[in-house]
């Protein structure tokens, strides 16, 4: 479903961020820094869309609860 695909996308973007961040200190060209900024922008965009979708999908259910389930 979409929530699972979104979580996988966040995971992949996060992996890209880590790999790119590791290259920044040894990249004299600065390209890795620009790639890192782009990856962080991708994460921000995707997370905002994902959180909005989660809120729309789960909000009605969660707002119907009068207490948080403990089991």
Structure summary:
The protein has 71 residues and is mainly α.
Find the structural class using helix and strand composition.
Answer: mainly alpha
Rough outline: elongated
In round numbers, the mean pLDDT is 93
User: Compute the gyration radius: what is it?
Assistant: 17 Å
Quantity of strands, as a count: 0
Low-pLDDT residue spans = none
Number of helices: 2
Reading the helices and strands in chain order gives: HH
Strand content bin: under 5%
**Main sheet?**
none
Can you give the helix content as a percent range? Answer: over 70%
* N-to-C span: 24 Å
Task: Describe, in plain words, how this protein is organized in 3D.
The chain is mainly α. The protein contains 2 helices and no strands. The longest helix is centred in the C-terminal third of the chain and has 34 residues, at 31-64. The model has no long low-confidence stretch (mean pLDDT 93).
Strand and helix layout:
Layout: H1 2-23, H2 31-64
Task: Record keyword descriptors for this entry.
79% helix, 2 helices, elongated, 0% strand, mainly alpha, 71 residues
């Amino acid at each position: 479903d979409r929530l699972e695909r979104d979580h996988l996308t966040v995971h992949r973007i996060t992996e890209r961020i880590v790999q790119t961040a590791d290259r920044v200190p040894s990249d004299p060209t600065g390209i890795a820094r620009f790639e890192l900024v782009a990856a962080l922008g991708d994460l921000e965009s995707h997370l905002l869309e994902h959180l909005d979708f989660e809120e729309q999908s789960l909000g009605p259910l969660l707002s119907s609860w009068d207490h948080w389930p403990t089991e």
